[in-house]
Amino acid sequence: MKRINVNSLRRRQPLEPEPAERPVLRFSPTAWAKLQFFCRYGETEIGGFGITPADDLLLVDQFVTVQQVTTAASVSFEDTAVAEFFDDQIDAGRRPEQFGRLWLHSHPGNSPIPSGTDEDTFARVFGGCDWAIMFILAHGGQTYARLRFNVGPGVQVLIPVEVDYSRPFAGSDQAAWMAVR
Asked: pLDDT digits over 122-149, tens only?
């Protein structure tokens, strides 16, 4: 009978699981520039939707606004404008997860932290979706992005934000930029 040294078994470290890849909300340079423009255009909030490619639901290719009433502390989309926006997106062949899950808005101050109104709106409007993101850009450049899953036990996680300059965009000339002088 073979003897096993129990102490050697106890010293082994358990295998650590591979860390899960953390999701990142990415913006095309054009979408980011448009969002920045609207953020600094006036002294009120501005809101809209992020549109993504079908194969990359965390890449905002476009920032689209609809008719809205804004104040320094709130954004209220006009119901008819939202309905028309959704109809236009469906007619363009997009699925709801490509245009109706990323709520992007600005805060006129330096704080991107969601207000009570933001939290109420996110729960009321996006609480029935499988998943959704609330993104806030503060006038001072600070960002806040929270991914929420509403299925199963549900989970919310803050996610980082990046501008994806690897993709071609209007005004770019990547081939010329890469040319050796």
From this structure: 999 999 999 999 999 999 999 999 999 9
- Report yes or no on whether pTM surpasses 0.90: no
**β partners of residue 156:** 148
Instruction: List the end-to-end C-alpha distance of the chain, in Å, as a whole number.
Output: 75
| pLDDT number for residue 6 | 46
Are 24 and 58 in contact, with CB atoms under 8 Å apart?
yes
The CATH number that applies at residue 72 is: 3.40.140.10
Q: How far apart are CA 109 and CA 41, in angstroms?
A: 13
Q: Which domain holds residue 87?
A: 44-163
3-state secondary structure of 106: strand
List phi, psi (to 5°) of 102.
-110, 105
pLDDT digits (tens, 9 = 90+) for 19-29: 567 899 999 99
> Can you read off the two tokens belonging to residue 54?
């079908």
Number of domains in the chain: 1
